[in-house]
Amino acid sequence: MIFSRHVLSVAPLLSTLLGLALAFPAQNLTKRDTIRGPVIGSNFPDPSLIWVQSENSWFAFATNGGGVNVQVATSTDFATWTVLSGTDLLPKVGAWVYAPNPAVWAPMVIQIADGSFVMYYSATSAQDPSAHCVGVATSPSVRGPYTPLADPFACHLDLGGAIDAAGHHHPDGSLYVVYKVDGNNRGSGGSCNNGIPPIKSTPIMLQKVAADGYTKIGNEVQILDRDDGDGPLIEAPSLIHVNGVWFLFFSSGCFAETTYDLSYAYATAVAGPYTKAQAPVAPLLVTGKDGLKAPGSACVAKDGSKIVFHAWLGDSIDGGRGMWTGVPTISGTTVTL
After folding, report:
1. How far is CA 283 from CA 200, 223, 259, 279, 288, in A?
2. Predicted structure pTM score
3. What are the GO MF terms of this UniProt record (predicted)?
């Protein structure tokens, strides 16, 4: 059976999703000035974020749920969000995907120079249904539908697969993609399948791409990996550039446990070397902070002004993971939230 950090039974949540576009006024749910939520109170894991000027709206995308491969929500003010229930932005997942169980995870969308949109996502590999690969799909509209490329972007099947891809706009106009090699998928059990030695690496990779968002330029490079302080893994990279510094946000711990958290590393070059932020400035989010449980899997707007992340809606992951928002403050190499 494939080890899954994203998929859980959503049967208890179907009644809240059935045919509804759910809106949650965040001003009524404010925990403090910089963190609000849940702004989406239904299962909306692994959210990503993009501002689209032509739509005058924010768009958030999430792991499969509610009968669709890719969920989407919109907001004009970053406070009240509407889930477009029943709208599937990726109705066709790609020829490389294991069709009986595509298990689409962690979609992320960027807009490229010609005005079109590129989606990065993870799905089960037809070559090896025990692992995921990263795929790419394109659309002239942020609202889709997105058309998948024929081949996956990255797989690393021998190491456990590839997941959690995110695009990055370099200030020189070039594009990069970061993703996780899913080493814990080949682990020996325990916390997130990687708590029993020998502990597998879960490296974050960086790949330069052409203006189309997916044609590779050169080879991928490793820019970060787990260490003993991270527990079984690091995952969910989100890369931004602010005032000459690159910030790589990531989660560590285990998504199904209260150890899950949000942290970051920083560098003065896109390929690193990256330095993990340490206490007292990191982790940024942990269980118990502002009443959150297992917060993580974040995406930061490319200018660093906004962040979305998920956290448990109940006392365990079985209650689903909703979306929270935040407003980071960045000063030098320090992020606060």
Report:
1. 22, 19, 11, 7, 12
2. 0.92
3. hydrolase activity, hydrolyzing O-glycosyl compounds
